[in-house]
Every structure is written in C-alpha cells, then in structure tokens.
Design goal:
The chain has about 270 residues and is α/β, with parallel strands linked by helices. It is built from nine helices and ten strands. The two termini are about 20 Å apart.
Length: about 270
C-alpha cells in the first residue's frame, strides 16, 4: 500500500476558512463522504465517530498538523483526505498552536494493524521538515495531492515478508523514544515490544569508587524497543531512526543493533 493508493483526490480541499475544531470535523465528514467508498455511510455517522475519537484526546500532533481519524464497520478500504487552513484553527493541539494542515483517515474497523501503520506513516511524513509547507503552498486540490504524494512516496508495508531481522533500539531520551516508537509502528513487523531498562550510571554513581564521575543524578529514563521486521526493510528502518536521533555513529543516547533471524514464527498484537 502506498499513500497515493489511499489519498482520495475528491477528498482534498485547499484554502478552507474554519474557526474551531467542531467546524473542522464537520468539514472532514462532508469531504470524506465524497468518496465512493463512503457512499453508503452518512455524514452524521462519520462525524460521530470522529468526535468519539477526539474525546479520547486531540489528534492535533503539533507543528500546525492534525490527523483526525476513525474506524467504521461498514467499509473495506481506506479513505484519506486533507484540508489546508492557511489562517489556522484552534484544535486543542498538544503544543497549543493553531492547526493549518489536516490530514484525515477513515479506516475499516477490521484493519486495525494497517490503520496503525498508516497513521504512523502519515504522522512521520507530516512532521518531516518542509513537507507541510509544500502542501500548504498548494493553491488547488490537485497541487496538494501531488505535494503530499511527492513528500514521501514510499511503500507502507502490509504484507508478510520472507527473511526477517531482529532490531533492538536502546533509548535514553524520552522525547526521542516517542518519535522512534512511532517510526517502528509504521513499519511492518511481526512483533514490536518495549522493555523498561535502567542506565548503568544509576548504580555506578552509588558506588564510592565511581561516585566522582557524576555531579548530577544520572538520568533514569531507559527503554529497549524490540522489533521483528522484514529484512529488506532493515536499512530503511535505521535511516528513519537516524532522521530523528541523528547520526548514530556520532551521537549518544541511542544504540541500534540489527541481527538476521534464522527462524521466526507467530506474531504479537500491537
């Protein structure tokens, strides 16, 4: 699946004038309804499901971007659309800023895993520097479509692979951890788990012999992300991790290991 396969041209609006979150969700429901995939679903049903999702927490992810989404039992394919609001609109975003770019997803209820990967993929795409600016600069829906597709026209994997790799990501920064877990969620994996860990400095600083190495209390944040992915995606996965963590060969706080797997079977729920 690629973004161009689920982004519906008829569900794109540029230069909209909207004043609050309620108006945004109403416009999303109206726009989504233009897709033939949703021709048997009422605007009201779409709106109610979007509102129910927002009640769990705002989908305004910051930096002027919101990704409202919901799932419906009655559809079998995805509907993705977008709205640009040049003047911005209040959306209860996590950074309290106004939202100018809204990309929405209406997903089949039975496709939770694909929905999760698509959501992660779009989130990473829109938080890539300059990508939202290119989309916001579009004057027509056609230009917005082209800008969105060109921003990151890569495969969103949703098929079973052959040979697999085991990836461990050791992270000592909570902010970077959040970004990396989103990246790995967007990549096809048969398992993805997070293990809590403690940095050795916490223990070493309490030993008299090593106490002088720390003037402040060592950070106690530590996580290990373990994922099994298609081996062909290993290099791309490391590249995406470096896009948020920086050059792994030069920095500190993130360690990535990749091992080929001789045998794997089964999967874990996300």
């Amino acid at each position: 699946m690629k973004i161009l396969h689920v982004l519906r041209k008829e569900c794109i609006a540029t230069g909209a004038v909207l004043h609050n979150k309620d108006e945004v969700l109403e416009e999303v429901a109206k726009l989504a309804r233009k897709s033939k995939i949703l021709e048997n679903v009422s605007e009201q049903e779409i709106l109610e499901q979007l509102q129910a999702r927002e009640a769990l927490g705002s989908t305004g992810v910051g930096k002027g971007v919101a990704i409202p989404h919901c799932r419906l039992k009655s559809i079998t394919d995805f509907v993705v659309g977008l709205i640009t609001v040049p003047s911005g609109v209040d959306f209860d975003a996590i950074d309290a800023g106004k939202v100018k770019l809204i990309v929405f997803i209406i997903a089949p209820e039975a496709e939770s895993n694909r929905h999760l990967r698509l959501l992660s993929f779009i989130s990473q795409m829109l938080l890539t520097p300059k990508a939202p600016d290119r989309i916001l600069a579009a004057q027509t829906p056609e230009e917005a479509y082209d800008s969105c597709v060109q921003a990151r026209d890569t495969e969103i994997s949703d098929t079973e692979g052959g040979a697999r790799s085991l990836i461990h990501v050791f992270v000592q920064s909570e902010d970077i951890f959040r970004e990396i877990i989103q990246i790995l969620t967007g990549i096809e994996s048969s398992s993805l788990v997070v293990v809590g860990s403690e940095n050795a400095g916490i223990y070493l600083s309490k030993l008299p012999l090593f106490a002088s190495f720390w003037t402040d209390e060592p950070s106690d944040f530590g996580r290990i992300i373990i994922a099994v992915i298609d081996r062909k995606l290993s290099n791309e996965t490391v590249r995406r991790i470096e896009s948020v963590a920086g050059d792994l060969g030069k920095g500190s706080g993130v360690l990535v290991t990749v091992q080929d797997i001789a045998y794997s079977a089964g999967s874990l729920a996300t």
